[in-house]
Amino acid sequence: MNQANLTLKDFASDQEVRWCPGCGDYAILKTVQKLLPTLGRPRENQVFVSGIGCSSRFPYYMNTYGFHTIHGRAPAIATGVKLANPELDVWVITGDGDGLSIGGNHMMHTLRRNLDLQILLFNNEIYGLTKGQYSPTSRLGTRSPSSPAGSIDPPLSPCAVALGAGGTFIARSIDTHAKHLSAVIGAGHAHKGTAFIEILQNCPIYNDGIFEPVKDRATAPDFRVEVEHGKPIVFGGEREKAIRLDRERLRLEVTGADAGDVLIHDETNPVLAQLLAAMGGPGFPIAVGVLYRRRQPSFDEAFSRRKGKSKEGNLAALLQSGNTWVVD
Amino acid sequence: MELTEEKLDERHLDAREVVDVVVRFAGDSGDGMQLTGASFTLATALYGNDLSTFPDFPAEIRAPVGATFGVSAFQIYFGSEDVTTAGDALDVLVAMNPAALATNLANVVDGGLVIADRGAFTAKNLAKAGYAANPLDDGSLAGYRLLDIDISAQVLAAIESFGLGHKASLRCKNMWTLGLVMWLFDRDRGATVNNLKAKFAKRPEIAEANIAALNAGHAFGETAELPSGIHVYSVPRARSAPGLYRNVTGTQALAWGLLAGAELSGIDLLFASYPITPASNLLHEFSNRGDFRVGTFQAEDEIAAVCTAIGASFAGSLGVTSSAGPGVALKSEGMSLAISTELPLVVIDTQRGGPSTGLPTKTEQSDLDMALFGRHGDTPLPVIAPATPPECFDMAREAVRLATKYMTPVMLLSDGYLANAAERWRIPRVEDFERTPVEFAEDAGEFRPSRRDPQSLARNWARPGTPGLEHRIGGIESDHDSGNISYEPANHQRMTDLRQAKIAGIAHDIPLQQVDQGAASGKLAVVGWGSTYGAIHQGVKRARGEGYDVSHIHVRHLCPLPRNLGELLAGFDAVLVPEMNTGQFARLLRAEYLLDVESLGKVSGQPFKIGEILAAIHAKCREAEPAQ
After folding, report:
1. Beta strands of B327-391 (E only): which ranges?
2. Mean pLDDT over all residues of chain A?
């Protein structure tokens, strides 16, 4: 198939999409289907692997190779796909429960190894497919069927966890923010190594509006800051606010855009990335964009070098290796 | 049936020429007994005896010196006739300390030879082994041939000139002892010398000191005044079919069989595993095979290991994963996914004593029920079990054949004994094997992921990267025709029936059950599976020699069972199933064939003894014909 002529339609499967009306997943699906034809890679080399959950239905709707697996294990199965054939572009589709709760171990080790694949983690801060229980990213006090009086376990930050696990590409974007999301996913695809992309995704049924402040046109400028490598970190409706580093206490502060010490985003700085990943709460915006990027040899490159090439006849040599004797 | 043992009436050492001998090397877990045993095994194989070995080691890596629970042993049975077990009772016990003597003496035959290192029988070590008095001096060993030597002093004197220091010099005790035992059975030291040189290539002084110790032990035998009744024994060579031979452990044969299977199928192999005793050696063996079309991946856990293997199979390689019982339990959800999505997968279970952590270094066959039934949903898959170390090679190839031909996970049951035991192996000629290349779907015209071969019922296998064959699979029930998600009631019934029929149909693609020894019908059939082969073989052989009407049937395909097995067993008045569990296979046979099958279970962590099988045969036959 001529790659140059492919369009969004070529990447949409014939299956009826079965997410709830208004689900943020629709927007993400559309963005990915639109992005893929522009990547210059053969469609048959695209493989989407997912676990269990609403987000994990994603592969059924992509007209590519796809594997809807079991809860939490998508990174492990994707690892097998990539190791068996490093020519493939492997995408992991997961959610906050699938990727960070039941599958947290695989997530951690996949990031540590730096296998060359893209992990899109749809974070809606709730378990959707099991009807609304609180998840490991749900905010403290979240009321749900399994926490009617409010959850009592504090949430984790997906990007901070990914950094801690040794991830080499950590980014965050928003389901309906198509242009930004497309750019971030494209950058993740270009990254040789594990690209971890947290996508803030709205669940209209069980956690509706949880990200509204960062999505709403009116409030977003104050609640969201788009970071770009080498550029000052400024935000606000008039771009009048900025982030500075309190070097005494090693913490971020909001300051005026005209202050002399506005922080310049350096995506190669892991300490800064940690601060940006954790940034939020009263008065602070949430950082979106590529928080961290580092070039490091990918696991599959090293693995392929180790894995030998077939040499006819060496099986016989192996069986006869070491001490043998002849009986006449 | 209750487990009892009959002592085999054998005093091998009373003659100068003996048919077969059992030797056990026992010492501290740091004494190098496994290396000693392996070296003696190689020399014995090169000499031309048939043999079978049993490494028996503790779970502790370096237990406290002198402790009874830290005793590591290596047993070898060798002789001039067919040898299929590591032996019931010991003709020769090498005891490197009091703990080794205390834990093994009960197994030495009357008149057997005990070689003890007097230098290690210190007050402290004697106390640790629970001896109030020194057994070397108090006359308690009067019924045995005793050779007590201060081996420590002998070694220190022999290799003093190497200047290794006291502690490093004592490390050569095992080679001195090996030299003595090699003298006793007229074994050649050449291969051991070469192996020591290779092993310590970077530290030649260590190699030379060990070789000097080996030679000194040998010279001691030749020159010292030994007690009467202790001399060189001759064990005539075994008659063997012509060919090229080697020793092989179950683990080696399994790994090489998988490599052979993949090569003959023309596919790459991805071996993904997580370390667990006693299965880790397979991971190590694959890690050394970078010269083959095999990738070896140490996963973060058991679940990741099976899932990585499944991912590799989806991508067109053959995924293989390996573990012991606790790990296989963790893999069960992944195995169900591979059954649902119909992907090839080989799962190797090197069984150990359970439940839970159980006896990690000891052998058992108690994962059979798990292999057959231990998954959620109706999830049939083929289960096979090699009987001997060499047979691991053939059954591993069979696992690859079944997995790729039928697009299914296959479980291969090994165990701790089979994995570590070594036997002689006539090396097969690779060029004699039939090549059966896997055929991947390539043609986009008629492609659906659910297209099936009408004969095997296997679906077609399309690799990502193939243009036009883009498709999705998953763990949700799929439509029998389109392969898309389907929640239709009738479709689920149909797919469940199809999964059953596919596996059941394999019965037509495996050999009919043969009778290993004896007639195809008669009074008693002793039916085994897996590593109990050797003991059952010898037990039945001896009983037949005594005139009993008994046959040995050994089953390799446990699911599906050979299609003539029910009829075959029905031809016997009684069926006895010895197995290292509480009767799992016996229950299966009763359920499948409505036969009055009797179980003989043993779960002590040790393999069956010949005398235990023989006692059961005698009891069973006496039951049938009451004494007059």
Report:
1. 345-351, 383-384
2. 95
Per-residue pLDDT reduced to its tens digit, A137-167? 999 999 999 999 999 999 999 999 999 999 9
Residues within 8 A of B (CB atoms), A 20-79 only: 42-47, 49, 59-60, 62-70, 73, 76-79
pLDDT in tens, B114-131: 999 999 999 999 999 999
- Confidence at B136, pLDDT banded by 50, 70, 90: very high
Write the CATH number of the domain with boundaries B246-428: 3.40.50.970
Chain A residues lying within 8 Å of B467, measured CB to CB: 1, 42-44
The pLDDT value given to residue A328: 86
The pLDDT of residue B119: 94
Tens digits of residue pLDDT in B379-397: 999 999 999 999 999 999 9
pLDDT digits (tens, 9 = 90+) for B245-299: 999 999 999 999 999 999 999 999 999 999 999 999 999 999 988 778 899 999 9
**Beta strand B557-559 pairing with B550-555:** unpaired
Residue with tokens 């050492």: B13
* CB-closest option in B46, B256, B310 to A77: B310
CA distance A21 to chain B (A): 20
Query: Considering only alpha carbons, which residue of chain B is nearest residue A74?
Result: B307
The model's pLDDT over B68-105, given as tens digits with 9 standing for 90+, comes to 999 999 999 999 988 999 999 999 999 999 999 999 99
- Residue span(s) of chain B under CATH 3.40.50.970 come to 246-428
**C-alpha closest to that of A114 among A190, A10, A193:** A193
Nearest partner of B249 among B100, B365, B86, judged by Cα: B86
Query: What is the CATH T-level fold of the domain B12-223, as seen in this structure?
Result: Pyruvate-ferredoxin Oxidoreductase; domain 3 (3.40.920)
Interface touch A105/B476, C-beta < 8 Å? no
- Fold annotation for B522-624: Rossmann fold (3.40.50)
> Edge to edge, what strands does the sheet with B557-559 contain?
B294-298, B269-273, B318-323, B345-351, B409-415, B383-384, B557-559
Give the residue on A whose Cα is nearest the Cα of B191.
A323
Residues of B in contact with A64 (CB under 8 A): 470
Chain B's closest residue to A105, CA to CA, is B300
**Chain B hits for A325, Cβ within 8 Å:** 45-46, 48, 244-246
Contact call for A68 and B474, based on CB within 8 A: yes
Give contacts of B240 with chain A, Cβ < 8 Å. 327
Is A85 in Cβ contact with B311 (below 8 Å)? no
The pTM of the full predicted model, rounded to 2 decimals, is 0.95
Instruction: Inspect the interface and report whether the beta carbons of A87 and B476 lie closer than 8 Å.
Output: no
Could you give the CA distance from residue B287 to residue B296 in angstroms, rounded to a whole number? Answer: 6
Cβ-count burial B383-404 (b if 16+ within 10 Å, e if not)? bbbbbbbbbbbbbbbbbbbbbb
Asked if A15 and B485 come within 8 Å (Cβ–Cβ), the reply is yes
Mean pLDDT calculated for residue range A265-293: 96
Sign of the CA dihedral with B183 first, then B185, B187, and B192 last: negative
- Answer for the pair B257, B397: CB distance below 8 angstroms, yes or no: yes
Cα of A15 to nearest chain B Cα, Å: 8
Contacts of B6 (CB under 8 A, 6+ apart): B611, B612, B614, B615, B618
Q: What is the ipTM of this complex?
A: 0.97
Kindly list the residues from chain B whose CB atom is less than 8 angstroms away from the CB atom of residue A111: none
- Hey, is the C-beta of B470 within 8 angstroms of any chain A C-beta? yes
| Domains of chain A with bracketed CATH | 3-230+284-306 (3.40.50.970)
How far A261 CA sits from the closest chain B CA (Å)? 44
CATH 3.40.50.920 residue ranges of chain B are 522-624
